[in-house]
Amino acid sequence: MIPFNKPPYVKKENYYISQAIKKRKICGDGEFTKRCSKWLEEYTGSSRVLLTTSCTHAIEMTAILSGVKDGDEVIMPSFTFVSTASAFALRGAKIVFVDIRPDTMNIDEQLIESAVTNKTKAIVPVHYAGVACEMDTIMDIAKRHNLFVIEDAAQGIMAKYKGKNLGAIGDYGCYSFHETKNISMGEGGAILIKDLENIEKAEIIREKGTNRSKFFRGEVDKYTWVEIGSSYLPSELNAAYLYAQLEASVKLYDDRMKSWKHYYKSLSYLEEKNIIHLPKIPDECEHNAHMFYIKTKDLEERTNLISYLKKNGISAVFHYIPLHSSPAGNRFGEFRGIDNYTTKESERLLRLPMYYGLSDSDIDFIVEKIYEYYGIKVG
Ligand SMILES: *Cc1c(COP(=O)(O)O)cnc(C)c1O
Fold first, then answer.
1. What is the pTM of this model?
2. So what CATH class is 13-247?
3. Counting C-beta atoms within 10 Å of the first and last residue's C-beta, which end of the chain has fewer, N or C?
């Protein structure tokens, strides 16, 4: 069986985890947490990067940081993971869903402005498959209407928009290091903070609403409750795993990119014949090979292809059910404008196995089975 995903592993993780254990420092904010933050700050150019227990939690932190409250509106695509919306619904916000572009599956930047009202507080672009949203346009709209931009860059580490790292463009960015992402720590994530003045508040929110980080730096002589917050600081054991991955990030990236290009080249013939469609990468974007998807004609064809691949030992999967058609999405949000592409395109999308260490021969086998399904000889 060729699985859909295998968590990335480069072997050095064991060594770093055992070092953390030996130091008798396994709670958060030890040496590995600090090393990871520094690595991410240097790599992304963000003023401050704090590790979190998940990307979901990083987004929840941004909702608190931007002061989102009851009755505010937050704009995002409906084609995204639950956490993008739930983090703001937790603060009482109304979620405003806007249609996506069929080429990238990202929020259609041209439709955002007409969804803005005097209640709008933030725009949350989601960089699907590590392909950037049209950030210049989004930043411009936000500036003119005085809105926060919070990037859901869960899938976006090492991907760029006009040379800038995803997550480091908006006011806040959120990464995921879940085992299904390019770089992992099991469960975990990070929040990227652009403005220096927001750093202290972020540290407080992450430390249960206390100024404990200041205390540890010797800046106050006791720590106390100063804000709302939660327990968003990951363990050193997870950070140690992550540090090994960050050190190996180029290797992880190159390996995925090689697989992505191999898929793309091998499946091009089916696209030329207009049988399937392949991902589109706009010129401004450097993606990170997070995902390889194809688009079938429609839902029925996708369902049949998934079971055909499964019969042949290949695990291929669909992705998000648009949030506006979910029970909670209905309760906490509304789709503003017309759903031209969100539902239709999400029903066509099929993700193929993609992970660090996926072999060329496995890709060849998967490709062969796709050609076979369509009754076409490998081109
Ligand atoms: C994975 C993912 C998340 C959630 O990440 P966790 O670290 O599992 O909380 C949020 N948004 C998007 C777009 C994702 O792909």
1. 0.98
2. alpha beta
3. N
